[in-house]
Amino acid sequence: MKKMIYLVLLLICVQTEVYGQRKVTVVEPESSVNQAGKALKRKVAISRFTNETQYAKGLFYDKDNDPMGKQALDILSAKLASSGKFILLERNDLNELLKESSKSDNSYQNVGADYLIIGSITEYGRKNIGDVKVFSTSKTQIVEAAVSIRLVDVSTGLIIYSEEAKGTAEQKTKQTLGVGGKADYDATLSDKAISMAISKLVENIINNCMDRPWKSYFLSYDNDAILISGGKSQGIEAGDKFSVKLKGKTVKNPQTGMSIELPGKKVGEISISMTGGDTPDTEYSIVTFTEGEIDKTNLNNYYIEEKK
Fold this sequence. Notes:
By secondary structure, this protein is an alpha+beta fold. It has helices at 2-19, 32-36, 67-83, 94-101, 188-210, and strands at residues 42-46, 50-51, 86-89, 115-132, 136-153, 158-176, 179-180, 215-216, 218-221, 226-229, 241-246, 250-252, 259-261, 265-276, 284-292, 302-306.
């Protein structure tokens, strides 16, 4: 009886909402992309990893063809690419560019990237641990690796982040009364140990790059057009606005001997008219000034920065 009364009351409520033409307004939340704003991709060049350990360095070891270094380089590249926040530049001439840059005052600026990553494998070791009991035996293969990373801001040549992390990978097998698995030498443990060490550093690399404002530079300024570096692949679109800043004064720290560039001064604002170029290396954007002006005969004194 109670169930019948409940159903009748429910039907009455439903009919009241229908005949009364009750209206329900659904408020759609704003897009999280619009709230947070888009993030422009940074250009990153990864210098070849070096193997600073004695592992795999035999009589015919070639430092320019180091399997462990390439292994670490590939792992880091894959992890950074999967984040979707970077354009990774593969430069076959990177080592030559670094040599040339070290001879000039504008260190690293010929690399063509926003940031340069320099890595090395500082520790590597393998060991086997066995445990023999009355009815069973076990064997554990353990690989330990340590990776060091330095992140260089190409515009200043300064190291903005440096850290070392360690990773461990192991495989255990057990036999009881002669029954069980046998494990031979497992080469994949090297990949896993190095990958684990790099994984601990990737988030910090991403944060250090993305926390700093995106920068660009003037390529040309004439009656035909004003061009800046960067384009579509980095997320730049027509209508985007950026600040134009005059480079700050460069001072020398007497304690470290390092040159420090002071913060720049805003002198104008530009708007993107269109983008062009076929590859990240050749992309450019055509801009117009919406505020302020610069000395077009000294373009190297200015840079473009995203508005925060």
